[in-house]
Amino acid sequence: MNSEELQKIKNLLYSKHSSSIIAEIKKMNSTLHLHIYAANYNWNSGFEVPKAILDNENCDFGTGLLMFYHADGYRMLESTDAVFHSSLGEWKEFINNLYERILDNSFHNKKFSFTPPLTKVQIFKLSKLNPSIPDIFLYKSPGDDIEIPVL
Q1: How many C-beta neighbours within 10 Å does residue 129 have?
Q2: How far is CA 107 from CA 14, 19, 44, 65, 110, in A?
Q3: Prediction pTM value
Q4: What is the distance between the alpha carbons of residues 129 and 75, in angstroms, rounded to a whole number?
Q5: How far apart are the first and last CA of the chain?
Q6: Which residues have C-beta within 8 Å of that of residue 10, sequence separation ≥ 6?
Q7: What are phi and psi of 10, to 5 degrees?
Q8: Which CA distances in Å does 61 have to 49, 55, 89, 91?
Q9: Do the Cβ atoms of 69 and 44 come closer than 8 Å?
Q10: Rounded distance between C-alpha atoms, residue 25 and residue 56, angstroms
Q11: How far apart are CA 11 and CA 57, in angstroms?
């Protein structure tokens, strides 16, 4: 990826107009650009843009898993009841939908790998709490490792 492409993603990240960001996300045909944008997204900005990334047909499985963890999906793995009873309606809907999409394997691409940021102890504890957690949420996903620039 060249510096011009990175600058374009960076400009999009720092844009204040969510409608123009979403329009650009919808037009993105690069799985890599979507992945880099998602990895650098500021989650304090809400869920509209992440939803647009997930709705883009070029969104990669590794990107979906990355977004699951960046959106605090760990809480869902710890306790689905905590999510179910959460007062954060938009987050709850987002994380539930993303969890189901990952389980349903509804991503067309698996180009980029994502390794969940879990220690061996966390994996052990999660497995003890809920032995039915699918391995895909605990271990490295299929695909190539890529270095994600911080923008």
Answers
A1: 11
A2: 27, 24, 25, 10, 7
A3: 0.91
A4: 12
A5: 13
A6: 151
A7: -60, -45
A8: 17, 12, 24, 20
A9: no
A10: 7
A11: 22
**Do residues 67 and 50 lie in contact, with contact meaning Cβ atoms separated by under 8 Å?**
yes
Convert the pLDDT of each residue in 90-120 to its tens digit.
Answer: 889 999 999 999 999 899 889 999 999 999 9
What does the block give as tokens for 115? 């390794």
Instruction: Specify whether the CB–CB gap between 60 and 143 falls below 8 A.
Output: yes
Count how many residues are written for the chain: 151
Interval 46-88: pLDDT, tens: 999 999 999 999 999 999 999 999 999 999 999 888 778 777 8
